[in-house]
Amino acid sequence: MAEASSSATYVLVTGGAGFIGSHTVLELLKQGYKVVVVDNLCNSSDIPLRRVEELGGLKDNSIPFHKVDLGDLEGLRGVFRQYKFSSVIHFAALKAVGESVRKPLNYYRNNITGTLNLLDVMIEFDVKNIVFSSSATVYKADPEGKPLREDSPLGCTNPYGRTKLYMESIIRDVTDAEHGWNAIMLRYFNPTGAHVSGRMGEDPKQIPNNLMPYVSQVAVGKLKEVHVFGTDYNTRDGTGVRDYIHVMDLAEAHVAALKRLPDNHGYEVFNLGSGTGQSVLEMIDAMSVACGHKIPYVNDPRRPGDVATVICNPDKAAGELGFKVSRDLKSMCEDLWRWQENNPNGFTQE
Ligand code: NAD
Ligand code: WQD
């Protein structure tokens, strides 16, 4: 592991070995930031960091990485003793909605306790800037499918979503209580895609819960057919409509948020999405074009808890963060396919 020089300041990325975290680490390095990653690897491995090093033209094992669980307060303190951090990007969390319904305490313990420990240590070491991975799941879905704004009504239907809502509130309280703190909540809509190189992407450990990793695993022949959950929604083709965003657009948005933190705006919330929606069938079609063959699907009943349409109003991020998505549906699907085709078994083939 690389040793930190005492004068340099670092960005701490929790969950930096995961899907969105690893793509963000690559973008941070590209933009000249020094990064330290903390991850317990419960839903990842260190291979994505090796790929980041490869794509960033760095030596193997040159990204400082600490296999620490955020539940381990002393372990976290040890990391903060070793580096001077300017800010933290906090991705580390459990994220499977269905699992959170079955094992709510695991979700509250991991996500909330981890965040409490992180905030404690940040206060202790006088680190006052945080970017937090939040989610569109914190919104009460609009019954008419109107684009959601940052001030749209909140309300969650599952424990995972509630951990996000509570973590936002906890961070807000700390920002109010502590002098000089700045916090940016980024509410992602539906992240997908992969790095354009085909060397990095999402690598679900189990059968994917989310649509696009499922579709790409059908496309590559690992799964038989896509199950379309509901064809009787009040949408243009009856299937659910979502706002998909390319993971590299998300990565760039995190860097934009990081750059804004020193402007001292206190606590802020931004949506990250495109502002447009695609149906399940449109996503399957777009992936079929990208992979060059028809992706089989069957129609199934609605998935409990799902709603017809979830789309973001991206105006605040455009106006205040200067962030707009720059990658379209075609490149999302082409990049996802390149990753899936070149790495049918994810990162495990090395
Ligand atoms: P991911 O599972 O790929 O990455 C999360 C990383 O955090 C993993 O590497 C995991 O090992 C690590 N981790 C989890 N608990 C930890 C702990 N206690 N200590 C240390 N490390 C821990 O997930 P992702 O898709 O990259 O999501 C990143 C963040 O974005 C999460 O907070 C997630 O809730 C949020 N988010 C994701 C989506 C999505 O659809 N992917 C949408 C909205 C928000
Ligand atoms: C998208 C559409 C499904 C799978 C979830 C979380 C949310 C956030 C993003 C973390 C819906 C349909 C899906 C499948 C299908 N994650 N679908 N067959 O539900 O919008 O959001 O991920 O914060 O919190 O809830 O995303 O990808 O699961 O579903 O037909 O096998 O695809 O019904 O219409 P969702 P998704």
UniProtKB/TrEMBL annotation:
Keyword list (alphabetical) reads: Carbohydrate metabolism, Isomerase, NAD
Q: Name one GO biological process term.
A: galactose metabolic process
Alphabetical list of InterPro entries matching this protein:
NAD(P)-bd_dom, NAD(P)-bd_dom_sf, UDP_G4E
Pathway(s) the chain acts in? Carbohydrate metabolism; galactose metabolism; Carbohydrate metabolism; hexose metabolism
Q: What is its EC number?
A: 5.1.3.2
* Gene Ontology MF, one: UDP-glucose 4-epimerase activity
**GO CC term, one of those recorded:** cytosol
Catalyses which reaction(s): UDP-alpha-D-glucose = UDP-alpha-D-galactose
Q: Does the keyword Isomerase apply?
A: yes
Task: Please give the superkingdom of this protein's source.
Answer: Eukaryota
SUPFAM superfamilies named among the record's database cross-references: NAD(P)-binding Rossmann-fold domains
Q: Which cofactor is recorded for it? A: NAD(+)
Q: Is the keyword tRNA-binding assigned to this protein?
A: no
Subunit composition and interactions: Homodimer.
Q: What role does this protein play?
A: Mutarotase converts alpha-aldose to the beta-anomer. It is active on D-glucose, L-arabinose, D-xylose, D-galactose, maltose and lactose.
Quote the protein name from its UniProt record.
UDP-glucose 4-epimerase
